[in-house]
Design brief:
Layout (H helix, E strand, L loop, with lengths): L9 H12 L5 H8 L3 H13 L1 H5 L1 H41 L3 H7 L9 H8 L4 H4 L4
Helix pairs in contact: 1-3
């Protein structure tokens, strides 16, 4: 029978790490007191100490976060613009392809393309893939 994975709140983790840093109890004693593994406490302590700088300089952390957020937002805007442009171009091409006859569409299918399969080409052109494989006798 499997046991459910326990998740601990951040307040609890901080409380345990502060107890460890106070040196009142050893790591093993603290682990048995709270019924958790010593590895968990060691991991929490490492994370706590690695992020202690943020507590001393919160303005710097906020500034870095905002800078990173602005950079990512700029990239997202750039990609959204590109997707919009490609969508407009694709819709225009679909309109032009609809006016072509079947023999012209069949002649557009290239069997030697590595990036786009024949099935995908037929799907994009709006023709049945069987027409590309079938040769009349």
């Amino acid at each position: 029978m499997s046991t459910k994975r326990t998740s601990y709140s951040s307040e609890f983790k901080v409380k345990v790490v502060l107890e460890l840093l106070a040196n009142e109890l050893t790591l093993a004693e603290l682990a048995s007191k709270h019924n958790i593994t010593t590895k968990n406490i060691q991991n929490w302590k490492k994370i706590f100490l690695d992020n202690a700088v943020i507590a001393m300089e919160p303005a710097k952390a906020v500034k870095e976060y905002k800078t990173e957020n602005d950079k990512l937002q700029h990239e997202v805007d750039k990609y959204a613009k590109k997707v919009g442009q490609l969508t407009i171009e694709r819709d225009w091409l679909e309109g032009k392809l609809a006016s072509l006859d079947l023999s012209t569409k069949k002649s557009m299918v290239e069997s030697k393309l590595e990036n786009i399969s024949i099935v995908k080409q037929c799907q994009l052109l709006g023709i049945n893939r069987g027409t590309c494989y079938y040769t009349p006798k």
